[in-house]
Design goal:
With 482 residues, the protein is an alpha/beta fold. Helix content is 35%, strand content 18%.
């Protein structure tokens, strides 16, 4: 999925707008959260807008969904809609046409692509304060109706002849409504736009009515719940906060024991996990059991830790389907929270031990499962954990007294080392704070933050001596998360 997001606010004089850059920034972040590759362009001149559209055209070649968003001034001339750059000349009609981005060109770019779902969102049609010499009747205010090619939905901030409100807060009224409703799980885009229309109408007291053209033939939702994308297990297993214990079921008694946070109860529960006891247990129950085995191990249960370490022997006589469900659950618990959402920080305590099981070919289907689950969730990853791709990482360091100081962590030539919070990583006088760590602990942290097992990280130190240093210094509060 790819998106081009443009927000223009820095127009001349009274044409300046308050919200479009915020609109573009916030929409771009939201689309990124849902797996879009986004290019964001703000306060762009005509040439910048046109070049961005050319790049967008190229990116569409490898996408299934294409989305174009524009916030700023828009107008129609002779029934054709134009999206204004910050340098669009407004003294002459002809100059205005050739100095702004034609909406028809955007539509044609999407139409000629092979993407199945084409989305255009236009928070334009704002009141135009420029005094024009050319005559305009009331019927030419706002944007004109357009043709929506097959597989396309075009959302307008207003109906023809209306103006869009710039908004009183951070966002324009229309964009603010989109941001309000885009997160609803499994909400089809047509329904989302109806909800947007109700919100905009209420906030504008009926003065602004949104409008869509659509020729979509398939279904599309921005926030598709994992249970809609993964059919191996049910919603109550994927979001196990919904799982209800039934004391009459043996597998549920095991899960209840694992959930107890009492090591003795957890040990007793783990002792009940045998091939014979799992014969009638459903795959959903075993999946939740696997999640709680990993959870118990992270909580310090020695028996749960031993179960993971000796997984091959402990499950040697289990039916293949039952064994897979337990391992699927353990892997899922690493990356997903009780609500079935990707964890911001993975549960890494036994990350490397679980992924070490990948060397056993008869367990490969579980690693295929977690790869598919992560891909479906649009998790931000450098590579699929357990997948075929390794990631080369170069760690640059500077020799200091009694060791080395980490200066950068490079992937594909880009330094991914950054600070979560600059203020927290500096003392009261603004000086950077460095903390001591070992090479092994630093590499363990990299593995957890990059969400990749050590076997998939190909680490190189520059200079090489840093790899054997007894002590490293690294900036407090660092992260390399995607």
């Amino acid at each position: 999925m790819t998106a081009l997001v443009i927000g223009n606010a820095a127009y001349d004089g009274d044409g300046k707008l308050a919200n479009p850059v915020n609109d573009a920034t916030d929409i771009a972040k939201k689309l990124g959260d849902y797996g879009f590759d986004v290019e964001t362009v703000t306060d762009a001149n005509y040439k910048d807008m046109d070049k961005a559209l050319t790049r967008f055209r190229a990116a569409l070649a490898t996408s299934e969904v294409g989305l174009f968003f524009f916030a700023g001034h828009g107008m129609q001339i002779d029934g054709v809609n134009y999206l204004l750059a910050i340098d669009t000349p407004m003294d002459d009609e002809t100059d205005a046409k050739h100095g702004s981005l034609s909406l028809d060109k955007v539509i044609e770019t999407l139409e000629r692509s092979k993407v199945a779902t084409k989305i255009i969102m236009l928070d334009a049609c704002r009141n135009n304060p420029w005094k024009r010499e050319w005559q305009r009747s009331a019927s030419t205010l706002g944007l004109a109706p357009v043709y929506a090619p097959r597989g396309t939905i075009i959302g307008f901030a207003t109906s023809p002849g209306q103006y869009a409100l710039d908004g009183k807060g951070r966002n324009g009224t229309y964009t603010g409504a989109i941001l309000q409703h885009i997160d609803e799980a499994d909400c089809l885009i047509e329904t989302m736009f109806k909800q947007v229309r109700n919100t905009v109408s209420a906030e504008s007291k009926g003065k602004q009515i949104t409008w869509e053209h659509t020729s979509l033939s398939g279904n599309f939702a921005f926030n598709q719940s994992l249970s809609k994308l993964i059919t191996d297990y049910g919603p109550e297993a994927l979001a196990d906060a919904l799982f209800v214990i039934d004391p009459a079921k043996k597998s549920h008694k095991v899960i209840a024991g694992l959930k107890s946070h009492n090591w003795y109860s957890q040990n007793d529960a783990l002792a009940l996990i045998t091939a014979g006891s799992l014969t009638k247990a459903s795959n959903d129950n075993l999946f939740v059991m696997g999640r709680n085995i990993y959870q118990a191990a992270c909580g310090g249960s020695r028996a749960a830790e031993a179960f993971i370490s000796n997984f091959i022997d402990r499950t040697a006589h289990f039916p293949a389907e039952k064994r897979k469900a337990i391992l699927d659950g353990m892997l899922f618990e690493v990356f997903f929270d009780p609500d079935g959402q990707p964890r911001t920080a993975i549960k890494a305590n036994h990350f490397s031990e679980v992924f070490a099981l990948k060397k056993h070919k008869n367990l490969q289907s579980s690693f295929d499962f977690i790869g598919s689950a992560l891909a479906a969730s649009n998790a931000k990853l450098y590579a699929i954990p357990g997948g075929p791709l390794d990631v080369s990482v170069t760690i640059t360091a500077k020799a200091i007294a009694n060791g080395f100081r980490i200066e950068g962590v490079y992937v594909d030539g880009v330094n991914i080392l950054r600070l979560e919070d600059e203020a927290e990583a500096s003392d009261d006088e603004g000086n950077p704070i460095y903390v001591r760590t070992s090479v092994s602990q630093f590499e363990k942290t990299l593995s957890a933050q990059m969400k990749l097992p050590p076997s998939q990280l190909k680490l190189t130190y520059s200079p090489p001596e840093a790899d054997e240093a007894g002590s490293l210094r690294v900036r407090a509060g660092f992260t390399v998360s995607k």
